[in-house]
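Hi L.,

As promised, SH3 domain-containing protein:
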Amino acid sequence: MSTSFATSFWGNEDRGLDVLHGKLKKGKHVTAEIAALFKERASIEEDFGKRLAKLAKAFTTVEEIGTLRETLDLVKAELETSARAHLDIANEIRLQLEKPTSDFMNTQSVVRKTHHSNVEKRLKAKAAMTANAEKCKNRYVSKCHEVTQLLQQQPNLPPKDAEKHQQRLEKSQQQANQNDLEYMSAVERLAAAHTLWEDDYRTACVEFQRLEEERIDYLRGRLWAYANIISTLCVADDESCERIRTSIERCHVSKDIALFLDTSSTGTTIPVPEPYINYYTQTSERAVAPLVTRVVPNTYDEVPGAQRAYSSSNLSAQQPLLKGPAAFNAAAVNLTNFTKKMGDAARENGAVLGSLFKKGTMGGNGSNTRNSVDRGQPLSNGNSGALQQPVVVTPSVTLAASSGVYHDDEDEENHQQQSDEVGEFSYDPYDFTDGSKTLFEVRVLYDYHSQAFEELTVVRGQVVPVIAQHEDGWWEGIVVEAATGKRRKGLFPSNFVERL
């Protein structure tokens, strides 16, 4: 079987050129696809290298110590090495594969188009000569038939028509001879055009075969180089992974734990929890304070919710009993808060109220010092670990008398006089005509249930706008009642909230 293009693409229909041209066009498309593959692979490698470099930059190991830290540092370094390798591979593919392949394809296209154009011109000339020769042949044959017919008619003609017939016959013979000469000339020109076409077509076939052989051989070489480049990258990645595995083998759990203990140990002594010490007994046994049957700050007889008796029996878990001097000092908290609202009338009665707290028979040192809200951290509650709520400042008074009740006729008279003088004062929690502005907002940390009409009930997580701050540790805020949907202002302990 022939293996030459120059001997395998002939035929009467001249289809060989179309077949060869189609083969070369397909070869060009395949070459273009391979060049596009190289280009896309280079782009992928470049993008992957950049992403690896970004990952290596973001990866941090500063929080780790010991042998694991060394392994993580190596992982980071290998990421950077791999990123550079992929970027180098991308550049190598572009320089050694993509660009040379594109240039090779363009060079072959120029040669192919040149030979194809020459053969096309020769083929068109040959076709024109063939058509002209065919026309000359038809004219020559037609005149030959005409002469033959005239010769056949000559014996049967009468004498008077013989001369005229003879003239016509001679004229036809002359035209037939002329057509014969033209026909021969056309055939000669056709033969010359055919020879030129044949030579150029044979040359084109040889050149087309050379181009195809070069293309196949070139693509084999480029694909081989591509495989070598990628395998080099794979070898580099495998070596990188092997270095990481070697580093992991040197990583020891016990060494890292020992290093952490050596550098960060805080001690071996276990702290003892704070024991419970009762104020009255100075032991771990609990003693209950005497019942208070009368609230000393009697100025608030006419203020709703201001007159209440506090004792160990009616204090809730969120309002623990105050002890010793703190119990006496706390009695002035709500008193101070409301005397500010009473204005001049309350300040005039302050001296009388102060005398009530200076009696030596009451618990504590008898001072009228205002005790602010304790804002310390909640304490641990024994073994359970639960946190107690902060101490609420309440007007509780612990009396030192054995009977547990304080009586004084002079105080009773002062109490009645004070009540008469300030009886017209009232606290309206729904009155916002004073144009109170929000100072800031707080979030409730512990539930608090109001103990008086002028106080607010707040729950954990609730956000409360604060419109006033008082020195005694009680703040005034605004809430919306769930039942009525109305805005209500009132007091709450500041150590039950945190400022936003």
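The first strand starts at residue 440 and ends at 444.

Thanks again for sending the construct details.

K.
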